[in-house]
Amino acid sequence: MKRIDEQRLYEKFQNETGVSNEDYYAAFKRVKRIKRFYTHCIVYILVNTYLIVNHCFEANSMQSLFHLHTYSTAFFWGIGLVAHGLSVFGHDIFFGNNWEEKKIKELMDKEKKNRFE
Question: Is the pTM of this model over 0.85?
Answer without folding.
Answer: no
